[in-house]
Design the sequence.
């Protein structure tokens, strides 16, 4: 699954956060970053995971045929 920091940055590229143990309940919003609702983060994380999973075929092919894709 997409990690929380990457997910948050996909929503707000300017965000500055500290996260302990990939636990959404430990997000510390730094330097005036506006907090993002947990539901929004989880929805975006699911979306990023679908995108990642959808491209699995391409990663598999690139391993076997590096020049093909």
Sequence:
């Amino acid at each position: 699954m997409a990690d929380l920091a990457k997910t948050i940055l996909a929503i707000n590229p300017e965000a500055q956060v500290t996260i302990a143990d990939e636990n959404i309940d430990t997000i510390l919003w730094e330097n005036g970053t506006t907090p993002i609702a947990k539901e929004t983060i989880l929805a975006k994380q699911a979306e990023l995971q679908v995108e990642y999973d959808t491209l699995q075929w391409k990663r598999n092919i690139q391993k076997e045929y590096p020049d093909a894709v």
Observations:
- The radius of gyration is 15 Å.
